[in-house]
Structures are given as C-alpha cells and as structure tokens.
Amino acid sequence: MPDKPADTTVARGVEFAVCRLSSLSALPSLADSFLSSLNDYQLTPSSLIELIEAEPAYTAKLLSSLHQQALSGKQNFYTIKQALEKLPLRHIRDALLSVNIYSASESNPERLRLRRQLVRHSIAVGCCAEQIAKIALPDTEPSLAYSAGLLHDLGKFALDEAMPRSFIRLIEQAKTEGSCIRDIERTNLGIDHTILGKRLARRWHLPEQIVLACWLHHSDTAAIYKSMPEAEIAPVVQLADIIARQCDIGFSGSYDLPTLPPQIIDMLGISDTRLEQIRRNLPDTVAQRSEFAALFSKDLASKNPKAVHTTAARLAEENTQLSEQNRQMKIDSNNVKFITEFLSKIAPTDGIIEVAEVLACLWQKFYQTGLVCLYLVPEKNPKTLEAIVVEETSKVRSSLLSVPKEALPFPKSITKDFEIFDAYDGLDWLFKQLDVKFNLSSTIALPLFSGPKVIAMLVFELRHPVRKSLLLDRFKTVALTAGTILGLTAACQKQQDYAEKFADFAVPQSKTKKNTEIAASEKRAESATVSDNTLDALAEMAAGAAHELNNPLSVISGRAQLLADSEDDEGKKKILIQIQNNAHQISQLAEDLLSFAQPRQPKLRKVNVEQIIEQAVKSAADKLKTQTNNVTIEVAEDIKDVFVDSAQIVTALANIICNSFESYIRKAGPINVTALSSASNGRVCITVSDLGCGMNSETVGKAVFPFFSAKPAGRKRGMGLSIAERFIHCNGGSMAISSRPAEGTIVTVYLPSG
Q1: What is the chain's alpha carbon radius of gyration, rounded to the nearest angstrom?
Q2: Do residue 563 and residue 612 come from a single domain?
Q3: Which one of 460, 490, 520 terminates a domain?
Q4: Do 361 and 474 sit in the same domain of this protein?
Q5: pLDDT tens, residue by residue, 610-658
Q6: How far is CA 442 from its chain centroid?
Q7: What CATH number has the domain bearing residue 665?
Q8: CA-CA distance, 69 to 94, in Å (whole number)?
Q9: Beta bridge mates, 751
C-alpha cells in the first residue's frame, strides 16, 4: 500500500462503492435462526428482539424501515422494541428477508471469523454503552445507546463488504505499524470509516444520535458535546469502545493501545468503582447477548440451506403477485402531482445521488417510460460522472461514467433555454458505457438546469412517438423544478463537506510509537494558527453557501408562485405557497450570510453621533414592533462626530439594541444608550446597557459567533451580534461585551472620530 495520502479520486471511488450498499449482510448463523423460525412460525416478539439486537445488519435495516414506512417523522422511534410495536409484521419480515447473508468461501474461513469478531466487538460496545447510559444519561433510553454502540463501526462493515481484500490489507498494515485503523484508512483511501459510516447512516435514514455516534466516536467528543448537546451518546460510545478493546472482546481492526480519556469520564460523571464494575461484568453480558447469534459456535457454514430455499420460494411467489398487480396499475399524473410526490420522498439530509435516484424512478413511473438514465454534471472534474439507471422492472443501479477527452458531458448545441435532444446527438460515449441497451430510435435527452448551468442530463425511452413540441409543454415545468432542487441539494452537500473539514479541527490523531514526537510538534504548531484562521474560514464558507443557495432559491420561489397562481385546488395551492414561503426564509438567511461574509466597502464620512443613535433605536423598535419609552439616550455635550458609514453603524447599533430588548422576559426596558469622547485614544465611546437576563462567561465568549444563540429551538437566526461586530470592525471600530447572569449586559462600541 502507498505511504503517501490517497488523492480525492481514490476517496471518491471508495465512497461510491460503499454507498451502493442497500444494507449490510447478516452472519449465516443468525440468518439460519431467523429463516428456520419463520418457516416454522416460531418467531416470537422477544426472540425477534434478541435476534435483531445481536446483528448490526438487522438493526440497521429495521431502523431504516421506520423511515421508509413514513413513521420516523411522527415520533422518535429509536429502539428496536418500539419499531416492532409500530411496524406491521409483514414489513418487518420483508425488511429482514431483504438482508443478504454474509458469504465467505470454505477455502477462506478466516474472513468469516474476522466478521464474527467485528460483530462481537460491536455487541460489546453496545452492551457497555447501554450500561454507561443508565448511569450518565438517565433521561436517555438505554436501548438507543445500545443500538448506537452496535452500529458505531458501520463504516468498517461496509468496507469489509464493498472491498474485502483491501480491508484485509488495511488491517494487516495497522498490525504491522501498531496503529489505529482509522489512520491507515485515511492514508491509503483518503477517507475513513467514521465519515463513511456517517454518510451511509444518513443515506439509510438512521436516527441522528446513531449518525453522530458513527461519525464522532474517534473525535474529541468532550469538546464537541459542549456546543452540540444532540451528540450526547457519542462520548458514551467512545468510552464504551475503549473499554471493550481493553477487555479484548472481539476485534476492532486497530492495534494502538487504548487509554481511558479522563475528560470524558469527568464529563459523564462516572466513578472509578462503577467503571470497574462495568468492565468486570462486560464479558458475561456480551456472552448472554451473543448466545442467540451463535457467535462462539465453531460451525462457520450455513446449517440450514433448505430454510433459505423455502423462504426464497415463498418470497418469489409473493413478488410475482406484486409485480402483476403493479403492471395493472394506471397512473393519472400531472406536473403538480409529480412535484408534490417528489418533495415528499426526499429528506433534508439526502445527498444529491439519493435525490437523483428518486427523480429517475418517479420519472419512469409518472410518464410510463422505458429505460431511464440520469447522470450528474459536477462543476469540478466534469469528465467523471455519477449515473442512476432505472430498468423497466423498476430495478435501480448506479455507476461511474468517464467522458472521453474529445467529448462533452452534454450536447454541444445546448443553450440556457429548455431543449430536448435526440439520443444520438453527441451522447454516443454514454451508451457505450452503460450495461443496459437503449432503443436509440425512441430515446431522448433532457438537460436539467440549476440557474444558468446544466446540473444533470435525463435520458429516457419513449414508449410511444410524440412530437417534440408536445414534449416541451409536458416536461418543461417539472424539469426546471427538478433541476433547481438538484442544485440546491448539491449546494447543501458542499456545505456538509465543509462541516466535516471543520470537525477535523477537533479530531485527535492517534499515534504510533515512531511518530509520537513529530505529531506532538505538529499539533503545537497547528494550534497557534487555528484560532486566527477560523473566522476567515467561516466567512469563506458562509459566502460560498450564500452564493450557492441564491440562484436555486429564486427559481424555486418563482416556479412555486407560477404554479400556485394557475392552481384551482386549494390543498395543492396551500402546499405551493408553503414551498414559496420557506424558499423566501432561506433566501433571507442567505442575505444574512452574505452580510456577514462579504460586507460592502464602507462609505466613510462625518456623521452626528446623536443622529446615528436615534436612528438605531427607532430601527430596533420597528423591527421588534415595540415602543421606545424605556430607552434613555445620553450624549455628552463635547462629543465629536464620527467618521464612519452611517448605514452600517446604524444597522450594527440596532442589532445590539434588539438584543437588549430581547433580554427582558416580560417587559421592554430599561435600556440606556450613552455616548462619550474617549480622552485616551481620541475615539467616541458608545455604550448600550440593560438590566435583562444577562449571560455567563461561556455565553459571552460565543455571543458574536454566527448562528449562536442561548435561546431554545424556534429562535431567530442568531446573526445579530455577528453582523454588528463585522460592520463595526469594517469601519475601523471595536466592540466589547460584559455581562453577568440576572444582572444585565453592557456592550461598548468604540468608533473613530471625524
């Protein structure tokens, strides 16, 4: 394996291979138990819970099924027991039957032994996390902690299935170097199992607590938890993982020495006595959990092939009946129905490839087409494309495409206007690479635009000949809306990538004996520059997000308004107005991001201080729809004019005064605004003071962070003080905040005098 870090092409290929998995595979012993019990009608709820909780594949599949059955949005069904109570029995049966059986040839039994030890380690982490949660998180369901621990290495299981030989080599290298396998993965693949686990868990719509545990269990969870309370189970899983490794239960793939993190133990409030008790009881607890899974059995092969064939025959018969029923169905479709169903089938956490898959499937369903291929055209590296192919049996497959050097990813004659092309118009390279055969005489290509750019191409077979003029009227609105949603999803996915890079600031890198001193030196050098670069990095990310969001949002809002104006059905009209309103709210957020990230160059001139303050007070009162009776303004007689951009400073002071108004729970004031000349530095000092709820020192330290707010969910966007400080700084001034809980807050602003 290479010693230098892998490039992004390798990482992208690994992610592509892993994210093609629809589920993990179950151990043969567990599959035998399930199939035999199912055929004999002996599967009780209690035995079903034991079976599912002994196998990560079954647990992940069942929790994912909650989302597929549209139940996860109504209530937080996190535990397996709750899932069994809410899901119909046939859905549970079908979900578990859809899980593949883990296969390893008889000539290579070592691979199956490795998988069993990985599962055993995961069960140990789950059991340990459950016991820790009972002590440290009394308000959290312990079964959720168990599921998070069981699935924390989701990315490793996926690597084992998607690229088994490479996974074995990674483990061997970790053993040779005495390293954490996560470091080996990053060096060779350019990505590691924590990121892969997070993305796979999001794709399968697992509970957010489990997603965060998969992602953060190798990070500095004690620090992350302070600003991300929803990640409360991540430190529990991290501690459980270390204890399971210390007890040598199962195998994690890592060979570095695990040590207990004192900061996590202190944060969770667990005594040494309780930890020792958990460690002492863990082997017996794991043995009880693993008994049903037969993880300690010497028989590595499937014991009951007849059960597999019997169940498969029954399932095939049922699938034949369902297919026959589906062929008889007739769909009365129109544009609004298409858009409504499209939006209902995608989630805010879906990536662009998942949204594209939903779009391709719905296109075939609504328009009764033949084969459908939808491929994405990225801004960077447009020569490597991701594609979704939907066959006539609704079977979905994905693949990577390579655009030849002499070809373009879309027809050369394409313009910004909506167009339809014949399949043979510059797309020969596409059909040569697809493993399905299109009827080119009846195949057309449709560009999907996000703003002025082509973000995807939709290629599909028509079952009946139709004039292009009729196709334009039929497809235009839906295609433009679909392209806009794909563009918005791509922008959100880009920001997720930024977030993952920022999370690395808090990720401790494990070290081998050989590189301990070097890593410590690098860490000291990095810590001196991180704080200086963070604000600039945030501003860059904010500007990128705002620009990426603006164009798609304007198109979504405009299309939704056009559809609403032409719609007679009040229910559908209400949905379209809701889409337009939400797009407007996100657009306002984008404007705040741009104001913070790229404020315009200030137009400096002499301005009267009292005039600025009065305008700011009025602006704050108008914004909050309140009175100014309790606001006192005191301006010294010898005060000088300030040399600033009047509009920017009025906005900054108004934001500060708004915060003062909102610091009172049941009244609006008193608020005192004063202005004095500073003899020491020749500047004008403006203070805004209140006697509201106040803030502790930790909150004061974060008060000017973008999107930070001490208010509960449902609050405003948290950009007021961020923009205020940004504008004051751009005008050559400075701002300071002092506050104490229940005593009030004083904000001091220094501005250059004229």
Answers
A1: 30
A2: no
A3: 490
A4: yes
A5: 999 999 999 998 888 888 888 999 999 888 899 999 999 999 999 999 9
A6: 39
A7: 3.30.565.10
A8: 12
A9: 684
Cα of 497 vs its chain's centroid, Å: 9
Helix then strand count (H, E) for the chain reads: 28, 13
Spatial separation of the C-alpha atoms in residues 330 and 497, rounded to whole Å:
42
Three-state SS annotation for 552-621: HHHHHHHHHHHHHHCCCCHHHHHHHHHHHHHHHHHHHHHHHHHHHHCCCCCCCEEECHHHHHHHHHHHHH
Gap between the Cα atoms of 438 and 168, Å rounded: 39
pLDDT at 146: 94
694 and 675, same structural domain?
yes
Which single residue is written with the structure tokens 């998607």?
A: 162
**Cα dist. 156→20, 121, 197 in Å?**
15, 12, 8
**How would you label 434-455 residue by residue, b for 16+ Cβ within 10 Å and e otherwise?**
beeebeeebbbbbbbbbeeebb
Closest CA relative to residue 407, chosen from 384, 438, 378? 384
Residue 12 lies in a domain: no
List the structure tokens of 361. 């499937």
Note whether residue 3 is domain-resident.
Answer: no
Residue at which a domain ends, from 571, 597, 623: 597
DSSP-assigned letters across all residues of 644-689: E-HHHHHHHHHHHHHHHHHT-SSS---EEEEEEE-TTTSEEEEEEE
In this structure, what token pair is assigned to residue 499? 């977030």
Cβ proximity of 400 and 16 under 8 Å:
yes
Which residues form the domain of 282? 25-291
Identify the bridge partners of residue 676 per DSSP, sorted by sequence position: 685
Q: Nearest to residue 626, comparing CAs of 679, 581, 680, 664?
A: 664
Q: Which residues contact 203 (CB under 8 A, 6 or more apart)?
A: 19, 350, 351, 354
Structure tokens at 691: 């006697």
Q: How far apart are CA 144 and CA 212, in angstroms?
A: 13
Let me know: does 512 contact 181? Beta carbons within 8 Å: no
Q: Which of 254-268, 324-338, 369-383 has the lowest mean pLDDT?
A: 324-338
- The Cβ of residue 70 has, within 10 Å, a number of other Cβ atoms equal to 10
Residue 101's φ and ψ, nearest 5 degrees, are -95, 130
Asked if 402 and 521 sit in the same domain, the reply is no
**Is residue 50 located within the same domain as residue 188?**
yes
- Same domain? 46 vs 106: yes
Is 279 found in the same domain as 224?
Answer: yes
Predicted confidence (pLDDT) at residue 434 exceeds the cutoff of 60:
yes
Please tell me whether residues 244 and 98 are part of one structural domain: yes
Q: 523-580 pLDDT, tens per residue?
A: 433 443 434 455 455 555 555 555 566 667 677 777 777 777 777 788 778 887 888 7
Residue 418, helix vs strand vs coil: coil
Q: What is the pLDDT of residue 42?
A: 58
CA distance 1 to 184: 10
In angstroms, the CA 609 to CA 683 distance is 12
Is residue 69 domain-resident?
yes
d(CA 65, CA 87): 8
Q: Say how far apart CA 660 and CA 663 lie, in whole Å.
A: 5
